DNA sequence: CGATCCCGCCACATT
DNA sequence: AATGTGGCGGGATCG
């Protein structure tokens, strides 16, 4: 091995001197290679046995000097050789080469050469900034470490920061999934929002007196966020879930720090943050005690983070001169405004990427999880992922599942964040006193966390619907996308918070999952490829295949009509993608959004404004993503664009679109369709399980009729009195319940309805699913008449044994709930939780009780959320 | 001499 | 117990 390397490295430096030769030897010149064998040779060089193994060996064996050289040279070579053809920057290579050239000199690498920043650049160079959706790249820590010639520890530093920005997500032990910057803007946006909430509006960190400012800052924060501690803070730390379980470790302070650090930039007017201030702020948040040592350590960490962020082109180092003198500081040079997905070349691409995988993954994994309690187990830090991870690990031995989860998490994270933010905002508005510190950024990963939101979202909706509705609707619509709204929600993991919305989202999530699962099955069954692929690369399987399969399956099933398809987008993406430049990212502002956000001065403004801003923002950013993700394929880029455009106006249009799409949509929609009231169904919102193409389609074809079958109607504001209307079969059961609840608590009703709805939804879904084969929904052989029945099968499938009989579900909504809980856990643990809990603790039997409960609880839950959650968790876990 | 921050010990978590 | 993660801070370098 060594020899081999040496030859390369060797003083000869054939590379420089005799490029030609090298080319021959290595096969650099593919053109030239007349024979395949040559190639082989080349490759072997890169890795005779196992790429990793060699590298490792070399690295370990080699002296530091060697390493460096190797790194420089080899690092990149392998990359080149490897599939990742497109490493974005040739420049780097050049640079490298130069350095490489030096080799002989071997001067010891000087510290700089080993800097984390440089390492990070190398790391980033290995992956495309905007990977195609189809290709999911998995990152092996060991491999990367060996390739880059560093200890794994260093890779963690990088990855942790990247993870905080969602550029990567942990898939499994030692494995990370590369997402690229597709969602970077969204993440930043979320952080910005979160930052605003926490810190208040734009702050100047250093300029005047730092201290003063600092303090101020701190104070504000405190005020805003009373109990910062519980969560590791804001962001992503996932709020709830688990704080308890997850918290266990100090968890990824680095990640959290990173996010906070970024937040500071985003919130800062000047976009400049000095290290010391940042350190102080971060320390305060974390803990009151400020040791000097701590400070010092914090600063060190910040350097680490700053290096990575610098490599990402998000910040740059500057010096601020203050009274004392010049202090180190960093300036944000990344995007400031986040219109939405816009940043990237093609907004959708990202979504598409993440979406497919996400969706699928989410569904499956979660379901699986459902069985277990784990979901909650640890939400860990912001990454929803982690929490999920825990779950995964436990749950799935399979490689796939983990990935999926990751993906899901990722998606869900994003969504969750948005959701959380919204919730938060809303909550704040409503109950200023109460703060859910944690909630700020929910973890994207876990839908579980979402739970909190749910309660609010679910119930609250009613009142404000109208105005907000439009917004919410817009969001939902957008997010969902005409066809896929529900799905998107689900994906997010957020339960759907759309507080404003009249309808209940969360049920959908559950539904969603189910559907997805089904799809997966179908897809897989249909398409063996996924598995095949799996062999090749695990990641690929999880991410790519699923999405592809789904899409296709959907198409197939539904109707070929869906022209959209990945391909086109992909092409676009590719073209677009190439522009990696981080710096360039600057995003155009959207007029409406930015103003609000920024304009809001500080604390005061507030919630409303914030909310609005959020909505808007969310809409644009989130919605698109969601839509993309979900619909993924179905939506054409064009469509997406439309949306984006429409966003503003969506409110009105969306419903229509949905309808139209629904009707026509047959093809795409995977999950279900959500029809907004606006369209014409003023009062009702419908959730259709659109996902299964065939069945759905059939339904779609005859819209109204179809409705009766699968869809669930959620009461709009007007319907407030009404809990839910379910598919016919379902309805009857539900109806009884509602009565009691009706007037008593509208909110309650909703919640209830929500629960109930879930059931029906399932049913619908099921029905639909089944139909996939045969268009007629009723067709379902087993239990034609009742959708519920269908459900059961579905559930069974999705959940596995968990579910059991459909009949049960069908018959009693309440029962369902109970049943669901166990089963549900998997589905939408978080979102559902609140309701479930209630149900759980209480008696499932009496709806009324639950309702009352909920009423009261709504707030309480929030307040006590952490505690309750824990309780819940504990309770759950036992199960 | 202060700013940076590499390096790797070591604790905690997960297998 | 082994291995994965990642907090943490000593002390080397840089400027």
Name its key features.
mainly alpha; three-stranded antiparallel beta sheet; 43 helices; disordered N terminus; disordered C terminus; DNA-binding
Question: How is this structure best summarized?
Answer:
This protein is mostly helical and 879 residues long.
Describe the structure.
With 879 residues, the protein is mainly alpha-helical. The chain is 63% helix and 5% strand. The protein contains 43 helices and nine strands. The strands form three sheets. It has a three-stranded antiparallel beta sheet. A three-stranded antiparallel beta sheet has the order 4-6-5. β7 and β8 form a beta hairpin. α11 packs across α15 (253-267), α15 (253-267) crosses α17 (292-311) and α28 runs parallel beside α34 (693-701). The radius of gyration is 26 Å and the shape is globular. The relative contact order is 0.10. Residues 1-106, 205-248 and 341-879 have low confidence and may be disordered.
